[in-house]
Specification:
The complex is a heterodimer. By secondary structure, chain A is of the alpha/beta class. Chain A contains 8 helices and 6 strands. Chain B has a 7-stranded mixed β-sheet. Classes of the chains: A alpha/beta, B alpha/beta.
């Protein structure tokens, strides 16, 4: 099969490492060649971060380039807008509608662009936007946004739901499994 | 044997384990840090954080001399610090195998420069292997120990951000511990004074020739014949991009050993293709070598010297089609890394900016103090340079600068190389004010212990250096400790020490807000009726505070309740819930 490309973008500290770990686990279990490229180090805290997940028969490059992403999963709206150029023409942006002001907006040097979902759709992009923060809160923790997003992403794959849930059980500490399974269901069924 | 997805650095650590490595000593530095962190998860390997890279390399050398396989890791700039032992360990050689990991950071994801570590391999005449994914990181590490022992030399494993911090599939094997090599006294081999070193140098040259001969047929280097119109010599992550772009549309000479290079293999490859190119990040090291061999080669004439590469960049350089995507017309504000909400450094930087201090900065999270709106750093170069630099500045300017200039340095960086600069201030007596930003951890690299924290790499209790006692023992009579969450007291002390007519140290002490044991207050809130939109709180550059509809707003998902903003609000609009 041709290599598939998933980008996970967000603000450093939002939990993208768990999302990529989950995907890596799931895809490896299907026998794919998998590469995951991450951002490490506290210095990225609060900054724009991107994680690449690629899978297929044989994956060479660990990174995803412009025009290559099948999916962009975004933890924050501005970050989805930042990376649109990386999406394939038939790709999908799965984004949280949460907005976190970056420092140039906080200092007043720039403003946070308005109506980003509508503008992305006006470009012809396929945007799946939802308030994942509220769904995470409903599941029991604001930190579960990453798993809510995985639930939403799962709708675009043919993989059995149980396989996703098994990957969650393998990647999350035991005491958080129930909460995260709920977050996954809320994302998937929303 | 099992297959799993593994980070490049973790795979390297697995290689250490499987090769029977017994001792690892490193200083953390992105992107090298996880090699040693992961190695520390194996009880069979003694692991430690050393105060700096020079110490780490010398510890590894000592362990090798003692007869056990050893390891040290550092980022590219850390190798500058360890260069002194490196060049001479190359002469002495080793006893048991010794492997040095150096991790470059093309693209400067978390670094102050983009130097190419391959120059060190050439300059120190130490062989260098360069894995291109996790599986190679594991295998090359094991092979590096064998080569180290076979050729009596330390061996480099050169990583880069995309190999260190990418996960790919590896196969793991059992650990095999080689027999210990008893230490045998050998002054001619191991004491590098001129008479002995003079005899060693020709042996080092002969060794390099022997390793180059090995490289000709080593499985580390391989030709993958494809279309012969174009032949590309490449290594590391660049190999992956080349294969992604060309597949079988080009022939590839994949180099796993980048020093010394296999002349005959390169000539054979060049002779088999119509056009020759080299794809390598940063400097034209392989390309220049090809030119010395008299080969006509493309390289930096079509590819940049700067930044990391990608598949599209390489495709474009070779005139191939590049996919594109759609972009919004809106200006998208950048999102640079910021000091976290609740960061203890923020209060001190606010005071330094408020008092218009000239600030010599250093390497750590607090380098972010240079970013708007604080803009509180003037100069930042390398580890420890703040403490040495302020001394020179004050010696040059005297009273003109002494009362308004400070150096800021973190606890770990101070241990790394700030102490020697402080010794210079104590010895040569400049009236300098040094602020140690003691957040009780090595923060920027992701929370590693250091000699001031009282814990070792495994989190077990360890020796603890008392910063106050250390500074006093150097002769500083003015050593003050402040809590940077307390702005009034911190400012009073700052002013007193700047005014004092002798050198002083201020220890600005509060643990990193992200440490698990640090308890946070509930988020603060803004009373909208009291907020006058004066924007005093915005001067802190706290990511939790923004202005919406003319009123300050605190993001409750980010605020850790440090209370620094409350101290700035003249209208009492900010309070605990």
């Amino acid at each position: 099969m041709e290599t598939k490309n998933i980008m996970i973008v967000g603000v450093g500290g939002q939990g993208s490492l768990l999302a990529s770990k989950l995907l890596g686990h799931l895809l490896l279990n299907y026998g794919h060649d998998v590469k995951v490229s991450e951002v490490h180090g506290m210095s990225q805290r609060g900054g724009s971060v991107v994680t690449y997940v690629r899978y297929g028969d044989k994956v060479y490059s660990p990174i995803i380039d412009k025009g290559e992403a099948d999916f962009i999963v975004s933890f924050e709206l501005l970050e989805a807008a930042r990376w649109t150029e990386y999406l394939k023409p038939d790709g999908v942006i799965v984004t949280n509608t949460q907005q976190t002001d970056p420092m140039p907006v906080i200092t007043g040097a720039m403003s946070y662009p308005e109506n980003l979902v509508e503008k992305m759709r006006a470009l012809g992009l396929n945007v799946d936007a939802s308030d994942c923060l509220s769904l995470a809160a409903e599941a029991g923790s604001l930190k579960a946004v990453n798993i809510v997003l995985m639930g939403r992403l799962s709708k675009y794959f043919d993989f059995p739901v149980e396989d996703w849930k098994q990957a969650i059980r393998e990647c999350v500490p035991a005491k958080f499994v129930e909460m995260n399974l709920k977050a996954f269901d809320l994302g998937r069924n929303h | 044997m099992s297959k799993q997805l593994m980070l490049g650095n973790a795979a390297l650590a697995r290689g250490l384990y499987e090769a029977g490595c017994a001792v690892a000593s490193s200083y953390p530095g992105t992107p090298s840090t996880e090699t040693t962190e992961e190695a520390a998860k194996f009880d069979e390997i003694y692991c430690e954080w050393a105060p700096n890279e020079k110490v780490a390399m010398e510890v590894a050398f000592g362990a090798s001399m003692g007869g056990k396989r050893s390891f040290c890791a550092m980022k590219h700039v850390g190798l500058n610090v360890a260069a002194d032992p490196l060049f001479t360990i190359s002469y002495t050689g080793i006893n048991a195998g010794m492997v040095i990991c150096v991790a470059d950071d093309a693209g400067m994801h978390s670094s102050q420069n983009e130097q190419d570590s391959r120059h060190y391999a050439i300059a120190a005449k130490v062989p260098m292997l360069e894995p291109a994914d996790s599986a190679e990181a594991l295998e090359f590490t094991k092979l590096a120990f064998e080569l180290s022992e076979q050729f009596d030399t330390p061996v480099f494993i050169k990583m880069c951000t995309r190999v260190s911090h990418s996960q790919s599939i590896v196969e793991t094997h059992e650990r095999i511990v080689p027999p210990e090599k008893p230490y045998i006294k050998n002054i001619q081999k191991n004491v590098m004074m001129p008479g002995n070193a003079k005899k060693k140098h020709p042996l080092v040259e002969a060794r390099t020739r022997a390793i180059a001969e090995y490289a000709e047929t080593s499985p580390l280097n391989r030709i993958e014949w494809g279309d012969r119109k174009l032949g590309i010599i490449t290594s590391s992550t660049s190999y992956q991009y080349v294969k992604e772009v060309f597949g079988a549309d080009a022939s590839v000479l994949k180099l796993g050993m980048v020093y010394p290079l296999p002349d005959k293999l390169i000539r054979e490859f060049a002779a088999g293709v119509e056009e020759l190119a080299v794809v390598e990040e940063l400097d034209p090291v392989i390309e220049n070598h090809c030119r010395l061999l008299g080969l006509n080669v493309k390289g930096k004439d079509i590819l940049p010297l700067e930044d990391e590469y990608s598949q599209n960049m390489i495709a474009a350089a070779f005139g191939r089609n590049v996919p594109t995507g759609k972009k919004l017309d809106d200006a998208i504000p950048a999102r640079p890394p910021v000091m976290c909400a609740g960061c203890p450094h923020r209060g001190m930087f606010y005071l330094l900016a408020k008092n218009k201090c000239t600030v010599f900065g250093d390497i750590g999270c607090y380098t972010l103090g240079a970013t708007p709106p604080l803009c509180a750093l003037d100069i930042s170069t390398c580890m420890g340079a703040s403490v040495s630099g302020i001394h020179g500045f004050n010696k040059a300017l005297g009273k003109e600068s002494e009362g308004k200039t400070v150096a800021v340095i973190g606890d770990s960086t101070f241990m790394h190389s700030g102490m020697t600069g402080l010794a210079n201030i104590a010895y040569n007596q400049s009236n300098s004010t040094v602020i140690i930003l003691d957040n009780s951890i090595t923060g920027m690299t992701g929370h590693q212990q250091n000699p001031t924290t009282g814990y070792n790499i495994k989190g077990d209790p360890a020796g603890k250096i008392d910063l106050e006692a250390l500074c006093r023992s150097m002769g500083f009579t003015r050593v003050r400790v402040v809590d940077p969450y307390d702005l009034a007291e911190s400012e009073k002390v700052l002013k007193e020490e700047l005014a004092a007519d002798e050198p002083s140290v201020i220890i600005s002490r509060r643990p990193c807000a992200l440490l698990k044991y640090v308890k946070h207050n509930p988020p603060f809130i803004v009373d909208k009726d009291k907020c006058k939109n004066c924007k005093m709180c915005m001067k802190l550059g706290c990511p939790a505070i923004s202005i919406h509809d003319g009123k300050a707003v605190i993001d409750k998902t980010l605020c850790l309740g440090c209370g620094v903003c409350k101290q700035l609000c003249k209208f009492g609009a900010i309070s605990e819930q």
